[in-house]
Amino acid sequence: MINSWQAPATPRALAGEIGSYISAARSLTHVKTWMLELRAAGVQSISPSLVLAEAAGAVSRRTGSPSLGRRALAGLQKLPGLRIVGMSNALVLEAASLAATLGLRGADSIYVAVAKRLRVPLVTLDSEQRERGRKTLAVQDLDG
Question: 94-139 pLDDT, tens per residue?
């Protein structure tokens, strides 16, 4: 699923929810491979700093291993082509407004706000986030 996704030709950056990719992937290796494919295509991946806690937690919960969660965090921080965007108060307020307007979950609204603010497509495996986010910005599913 992840490896079959083709990077769009036009955008040079994508905002995405790496935590959901990690949850859906069998291992962090699949996500890393996908990210390296994006980098080779000249596409930068962008995520809010929230992704660090979400990814570490997702791996730890799924494996039952806090040390694997910390390893996933360390690996994520070293991924080439990944830009982590800090969550300023202004970004959080914009996300809160999007959450109210679109009926998004709180964390999902952060990813949508980052993509909207940076004018890049949102990439997600989350069907609800994809459908609701589509009302305000370009959205790309990893499957198509």
Answer: 999 999 999 999 999 999 999 999 998 888 878 899 999 999 999 8
| C-alpha distances out from residue 138 to 53, 93, 112, Å | 25, 21, 10
CATH class as words, domain 13-141: alpha beta
Across 1-144, where does the E strand assignment appear? 13-16, 44-48, 82-85, 122-124, 139-141
Pick the closest to residue 115 from 128, 101, 98, 127 (CA basis).
98
d(CA 68, CA 72): 6
Q: 102, 109 in Cβ contact below 8 A?
A: yes
86 exposure class (CB count in 10 Å sphere: 0-12, 13-18, 19+): exposed
Question: What digits encode the pLDDT tens for the residues 18-74?
Answer: 555 555 454 456 666 776 777 788 888 888 999 999 889 988 998 899 999 999 899
Q: Where is 41: in which H helix or E strand?
A: none
